[in-house]
Amino acid sequence: MLPAVLQNFSQLHDYATAVLNECGGTFEFKGPRFANLDMVCTCDPSNIHHIMSKNFPNYPKGPEFRKMFDILGDGIFNSDSELWELHRKTTMALMNHAKFHKVLERTVWDKIENGLLPVLDYLIQKGNAIDLQEIFQRFTFDSTCKLVLDYDPCSLSIDLPYIPCEKAFTDTAKALLHRHILPESLWKLEKWLGIAQEKKLAKAWEAFDQFIYPCIPLVKDQESNGTKLQDDVDFSLLTGFLKAYKGKSDSRDFMRDTLLSLIFAGRDTTSTTLTWFFWLIASNPLVEIKILEEIETKLHVKETKQDRFFNAEESRKLVYLHGALCETLRLYPPVALEHKSPIRPDILPSGHHIPKNTRIILVLYSTGRMERIWGKDCLEFKPERWISEHGGIKHEPSFKFPAFNAGPRTCIGKEMSFVQMKMVVATIILNYHVQVVESHSVSPSDSIIIQMKHGLKVRLSKRHA
Ligand code: HEM
């Protein structure tokens, strides 16, 4: 079956969706003999529920995942069992800390005020088309680095500086999708020869190390100088992690893997959702009007200044906007795939027999596009489907809407990303009108993160010029 996949590689996510639709949601892929590419692909909610939640202990990510994602080392994405539990407990404790929410709010607003708004105003003045995807990637890179490393690389500045680490995330996500469809021996050969996607991955690895390692000893020095690691005034994730992982023998490398995984988690997912969101509302002007009305009435914007600060509490009042973001995530979940590999043989609810160590790919992109799950209008962008009859957000189970994963490994940054996205969207919609450049071609990229292949070229105009 590999030739068909290679032939459709440039539109792999849609091709997989079409095949899964034909097969009732689960498909057994057979690769060439000896290539170790056989796998079971599924987007069936009952299978997702079984694998991610009900029978979770039987389904670690497995050794194949770890080999493919070696660039993330011992970070949370690559870990299973005790190591994963340690990461999960530590990260949740830090991200649920009351002070973290204040730091988040301050960091995001600071980036909007001193990065996003000045850069957009400058680009409008120059009259050029703007690649919104690039702007959002720089935005989330800076804000995530500030939150995770306590350091803002200021990639979202007027001159849009080239920062190797910032670009390395996109190259990594593309190379990792290639590793999914090439036999291991082939991508290992490419790695050894230093060619093709593996060459880019090696460069990305170098860029990550050069960027992250220098951020680690700075705080270590502070500690040896007697500075308290976490005092009441300055809460930071970095100091929290340093304190938690202090005793580990390889603590510098472990910190590198921990921090890189978090930046990876925060940068591409949030920027990708924002990009698809603005494309979807540019194609659905009525939705844009409703969002604008909601912001103006619920946040009383007309009585206050247009460019005022929105806080996290206010963003929770924006129910329709929340629905529009969920609808974006249903159609374009940034994390396209999830891996599992059972320790013991099992039978899935769909009836498929799964020998132990089978490679299972959960195709999260396809779950949101199945007619039997979401109805005849499943390909339409309808924020209304998320609004309950009482006017609140309608809850959908995570196995039906797995954009943030499901079960014990559900995304830790879900709340945080909604706050960040709503603050950005509210600011942009209030201040600018977004129009996609005519003839700009839009399609998902061949990457494990569903970015836009050619970026999102738009023209912005000031709403109240
Ligand atoms: C729209 C935004 C986001 C989406 C759609 C999203 C989606 C996901 C998905 C699908 C996973 C499972 C990945 C896997 O196991 O392979 C995940 C895990 C995770 N996410 Fe997010 N994420 C988002 C934002 C964030 C942010 C902003 C952070 C924080 C920096 C974050 C932190 C994490 C962490 C730490 C995990 C690992 C959880 C675990 O394995 O126990 N995410 N996310």
From TrEMBL:
It holds the Pfam family p450. GO terms for biological process: lipid metabolic process. One of its GO terms (cellular component) is membrane. Keywords: Heme, Iron, Metal-binding, Monooxygenase, Oxidoreductase. It is a single-pass membrane protein. InterPro entries: Cyt_P450 (IPR001128), Cyt_P450_CS (IPR017972), Cyt_P450_E_grp-I (IPR002401), Cyt_P450_sf (IPR036396). Its cofactor is heme. Heme binds at C411. It is found in: Membrane. Gene3D superfamilies: Cytochrome P450. GO terms for molecular function: metal ion binding; monooxygenase activity. It comes from the Eukaryota. Its main location: membrane. PANTHER family: CYTOCHROME P450. Belongs to the cytochrome P450 family. This is Cytochrome.
